[in-house]
Write a structure and sequence with these properties.
Structural class: alpha+beta
Distance between the termini: 62 Å
Radius of gyration: 21 Å
Order of helices and strands: EEEEEEHHEEHEEEEEEEEEEH
Oligomer: single chain
Shape: globular
Mean pLDDT: 78
Largest sheet: 15 strands, mixed
Strand content: 35-45%
Length: 328
């Protein structure tokens, strides 16, 4: 017998329509641990921050296909926070990192000098300091998880085009490892270290399963939850003499999720956006049409805003700890 299953939860609570849940903001600490395999690449006299990216996951889609008659999909779209708020929080995150590093006794290259080095290096800046990427059309064999993004650079540490895909998995990190190498040609950075954080914040935990090669059950589910993903990384570059240097980086060991409720869900309340232009949608037969719907995750903005601040402060604290531990 062929079956499909579809589930959606808000924490442990399943919602079938809009729900009124009283939320209360509270400060919390995310227990973020970093993995760093190149301590020597972080030893320097001073630290420059040429880029600071914050990547907000804004939509998710889980698809499972067991057979022609056994397939299912769950799509979630975040509603509420606007781009102006996301930009402001990104600027706050960068400023907080500088404050924490200075408080820890770490010397910083000035913002003006860092900007001048980036410009002289020829590294390309992302237009408008933002990238909006939706869930594009594709064919799923077995199961798939896809995300849409709103990614921003800080005004004083703008998004570098070569690093914008660092929010992805391990292959993206490999591709970004030499992205800061043009800074090797900046003599004023010799003996110092450039670091470029890329924080990834999610709003839901999604899963898609198809048991076994010949399984006849397609299953997807998801929980609305705020989290710092293990895809959050920091690219590094330590220039040396003669225009050479040591690339590197470190990343969050594991994704960390908050138990704090921050949203309600309206099933079928959002369009499933596809492509960077958001011009079309994808239905359950994988066709680009205008009628495909997903579940809207209606954000309690003040609570979500507080969670973002708690997250970037914890992420920055983990960066400072990693950098300080490498100095000994």
């Amino acid at each position: 017998m062929t079956m499909t299953r579809r589930g959606l939860g808000l924490g442990a609570l399943a919602l079938g329509a809009a729900s009124a849940v009283p939320f209360a903001a509270r400060a919390e600490t995310f227990n973020i641990r970093m993995v760093n395999q190149n301590r020597s690449g972080l030893r320097g006299g001073a630290f420059a921050i040429p880029a600071y990216h914050v990547n907000f996951v804004t939509s998710q889609q889980a698809t499972s296909v067991a057979s022609i008659t056994a397939r299912t999909r769950l799509a979630l779209v975040m509603e509420g926070p606007d781009q102006a708020l996301m930009r402001r929080l990104t600027n706050e995150a960068h400023a907080d990192l500088r404050t924490q590093m200075e408080a820890a006794g770490l010397s910083l290259v000035s913002i003006a000098d860092t900007r001048a080095m980036v410009q002289a290096s020829g590294m390309e800046l992302q237009p408008d300091n933002v990238e909006i990427a939706g869930i594009g059309p594709s064919i799923t064999i077995g199961s798939s998880l896809k995300r849409g993004w709103a990614s921003f650079g800080a005004d004083d540490a703008p998004m570098l085009t070569a690093l914008k895909n660092m929010r992805g998995g391990n292959l993206a990190q490999i591709g970004a490892i030499h992205a800061l190498s043009p800074l090797n040609r900046q003599p004023q950075l010799t003996g110092n270290v450039a670091i470029a954080p890329s924080l990834v914040l999610d709003f839901a935990r999604m899963d898609a399963r198809r048991p076994g090669l010949f399984g006849n059950t397609a299953s997807v589910d998801g929980n609305v939850a705020f989290g710092v993903l293990m895809d959050s990384r920091v690219a590094t570059q330590k220039p040396a003499n003669m225009g050479v240097g040591t690339p590197g980086g470190f990343n969050v060991r594991e994704s960390v999720w908050s138990p704090t409720p921050f949203a309600t869900v309206v099933q079928g309340g959002a369009a499933v956006r596809a492509g960077p232009s958001f011009s079309d949608h994808i239905d359950d037969s994988y066709r680009a049409i205008q009628r495909a719907r997903g579940d809207a995750v209606m954000i309690d903005v003040p609570v979500w805003e507080g969670l973002v601040r708690d997250a970037f402060r914890s992420y920055n604290a983990a960066i400072v700890q990693t950098v300080r531990s490498a100095q000994g």
